[in-house]
Amino acid sequence: MISLGIDCGTQSTKTIALDVETGAVLASSQQAYGFVPDLTGGAMEQHPEDWAAAMEKTVGDVLAQLGARRTEVRAIGVSGQQHGLVALDAAGDVVRPAKLWCDTSTIAECDALTAKLGGAERVIELIGNAMLPGYTAPKILWLRDREPANWARTRSLLLPHDFLNFRLTGAQRMEFGDASGTALLDVRTRDWSRPALAAIGDDVAEKLPPLGSSLEPAGMLSDDLRKKWGLSQPVVVSAGGGDNMMAAIGTGNTAAGAVTASLGTSGTLFAFAGRPIVDPRGEVAAFCDSTDHWLPLVCTMNVTLVTELTRGLFGWGHAEFNAAVERVPSGADGLTLLPYLAGERTPNLPRGCGVLHGLTTGNYTPHHLARAAMEGVTLGLGYGLERFRELGVETTEIRLTGGGSNSAAWRQICADVFGAPVVCLQSAEGGALGAAVQAAWQALRADGATGSLDDLAKTVVKLDDSTRAEPRAAATAVHRAQLEQMRRLRAALSGANLL
After folding, report:
1. Cα 72 to Cα 118: distance, rounded to the nearest angstrom
2. b or e along 157-188 (b: 16 or more beta carbons within 10 Å of the residue's beta carbon)?
3. Strand, helix or coil for residue 318
4. Residue 273 CA neighbour count, 13 Å, CB half
5. pLDDT tens, 148-164?
6. Do 159 and 182 touch, CB atoms closer than 8 A?
7. pLDDT tens digit sequence for 412-447
8. Distance separating alpha carbons of residues 367 and 359, to the nearest angstrom
9. Residue 55: in which H helix or E strand, if any?
10. What is the pairing mode between strands 86-88 and 156-158?
């Protein structure tokens, strides 16, 4: 059996073909796209039709690469960027560009919803999460209040991966995992929060699609697409999920103990949990996962965004940048970066900025600045991991993904900051691989197979032990002190309205 995994991200859509029996990725294709230009006020939007076009192109490319083996395709799964708002009219056409997870233009709507629901603590009691600008609920209120004509046209509200599933199957549906990132779902009960819906308006619930298990398929590939793509057998389209939920499957993070850390433009840290992990401070997102369990998650806005800016500042290649980092000891001789160049989500500082602290004549060098940048963004994820541990999440091994994980220097800093072994995967496909695995499992189950999704993930997802890094006690102690210093700096600057 061959299963296709489609990963619709903020920068591009990628499709892979997975040989389910061997675990080999047989083909892949990627199509880039951009943002709606010239937006202001923190708005970040994309055209959903660009995603659909990229999906069709990359699937077509992959099927062409498969040649005669395309007849073995039995399943398709979609991974999508979380939280984006896709509004469709009665004909199923897109009403306006999608507001994305990184859109921070809805701060006022977050404040309004939080106040209407009784304050931040009450919001967490109701849905298990704080009301943050990245989530979907404030985007819906923004659309309802600021674009009433578009709201009047809107008949359904979907997330990015739901929209692509709709294009594949003709059916609209939302599963628990991605739905938990809307700030409308009570993550404890996996049902819509009636108070959260009512806080936006009494006409919201009717626009939401049916809600159901992440273990049940979204439907079957439409006959039109199946014929267009030359697929002779019926094809299951799995529930799919948000990119983090799919990356959890794609990194084998489907049982307690493993934690995945992604070192991309932004950063994420997430783990499997057999119970809802609700953070009373609202710093850890209490998401559901795509196995009908839970996925505590921390997201930071500034990771390779910061290191790439620093690298470019000195005109270094990646090898030169990594060598500069390795020339400086842990702690960068007292130089600490608060890396909030694009604001921050964890901690919640949407208007935050970057701060260098501890500059001296001895550490005011390009090499120290490089080290401080890499350590600063890793400490941001370390802050989240510490909160995981405080909430009882087991962390025995960190699985690294994203472009930053290619650096041996960075892998060692991760091990030291996290105080745990880190390792990469043999495949860097992440969300696309997870989507393919989930889809394959649902197709196999439809054929009568009884194995678990975790069993299948373990056979496909393989670690690259050559990348393993172990924590060094002395360096870990230095970074713990740094983390405490960052807390104190952040509190002092925030308290003075300087951050």
Report:
1. 54
2. bbbbbbbbbbbbbebbbbbbbbbbbbbbbbbb
3. helix
4. 25
5. 999 999 999 999 999 99
6. yes
7. 999 999 999 999 998 877 899 999 999 999 999 999
8. 13
9. helix 48-66
10. antiparallel
Q: For the chain, what percent of residues have pLDDT higher than 70?
A: 100
List b or e across 226-257, with b for residues whose CB sees 16 or more CB atoms inside 10 angstroms. Answer: beebebeeebbbbbbbbbbbbbbbbbbbbeee
Give the model confidence (pLDDT) of 290-313 as tens digits. Answer: 999 999 999 998 999 999 999 999
User: Could you give the CA distance from residue 236 to residue 442 in angstroms, rounded to a whole number?
Assistant: 8
Q: Going by C-beta distance under 8 Å and a sequence separation of 6 or more, which residues neighbour residue 398?
A: 258, 259, 260, 261, 385, 414, 415, 418, 420, 421, 422, 423
Measured in whole angstroms, the distance separating CA 30 from the mean position of its chain's CA atoms is 18
Tokens of 70: 């395309």
pTM for this structure? Answer: 0.90
Beta strands in 173-293 (DSSP E): 174-175, 185-186, 191-192, 211-212, 219-220, 236-237, 241-242, 257-263, 267-271, 285-288
CA distances from 439 to 146, 251, 360 (A): 38, 15, 55
Beta pairing partners, 191: 186
- DSSP states of 380-436 as a string? HHHHHHHHHHHTT--EEEEEEESGGGG-HHHHHHHHHHHTS-EEEES---THHHHHH
> What distance in Å separates the CA atoms of residue 41 and residue 19, rounded to the nearest whole number?
45
> What residues have CB less than 8 Å from 149, skipping those under 6 apart?
none
Q: Which two tokens stand for residue 402?
A: 């994203």
Provide the 3-class DSSP secondary structure of residue 333. Answer: helix
Residue 207 neighbours by CB under 8 Å, 6+ apart: 154, 155, 156, 157
List CB contacts of 413: < 8 A, sequence separation 6 or more: 325, 330, 374, 375, 378
Active-site pick, 7, 243, 279, 416: 243
**What is the spatial distance between Cα 31 and Cα 178, in angstroms, rounded to a whole number?**
23
d(CA 186, CA 183): 8
Indicate the SS3 state at residue 26: strand
Q: Exposure string (b/e) for 126-135, b if CB count within 10 Å is 16 or more?
A: bbbbbbbbbb
Could you give the domains of the chain?
Answer: 2-243 (3.30.420.40), 252-429+462-499 (3.30.420.40)
The length of the chain, given as a count of residues: 499
> What's the rounded Cα separation, in Å, for the pair 128 and 119?
13
Structure tokens at 251: 């990194």
Amino acid at position 100, single letter: L
- Per the annotation, the verdict on 93 as an active-site residue is no
